[in-house]
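Bug #77: duplicate submission created two jobs. Keeping one. Sequence:
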Amino acid sequence: MRAALLHTYGGTVELGEHPDPEPGPDETLVQVSAAPIVPLDLLCAGGTSYFGRQPLPYVPGVQGVGVVRTSPDLSAGERVWFATSAGMGPVDGSLAERCTVPHADLVPISADVSDAAVAALGTSAIAAWMSLTWRAGLQSGERVVVLGASGAVGQVALAVARHLDAASVVAVVSFLLSASPCGEPLRRLSQIAATSPATSSAATVTSPIACAVVGSNVSPVR
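Kept job's structure:
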């Protein structure tokens, strides 16, 4: 099969041929359709991970989306999101045509969301959802402030807060003063604010910190 292979820590992955994975008794063989490159992939591939260095070459990719080919637990053709231990243990990851995954690391997908969107959300969406629901116990009508709101976790947190009917959602981001007008972070947040059913706005300020409010008025943070 075709796969992205890391031959040297700190080097560039190369596309090449790699043996097809053989699933174990409790593993599912997944035909991969989308796989993101996340910070953990870069950390492991750089050789400085706290998990230590794994045998080379290996296929990076700690999460992905695909369909089941063979499985002791799921039906062939079922759509799934999955996680792997690539870079953290002696296993291959999702940046390949096929991947073997333990059953505990599979999540069936029933929602009408594209494979690319699910792959991009991944554990970032889980982190945002768990932070606001399990950890914070967000209730309808409460106010939410999201720090680092231009990142993947932050952007999902904004959407989750709105979904859970927060009274106001404040997004705090940093940006380069040389950017015009305030760089990519505020452009993203302006788009997010524009999708809110309530009146929304984003602040443009001459400070390294700005905030946008989804569904409420806005004041700059200095």
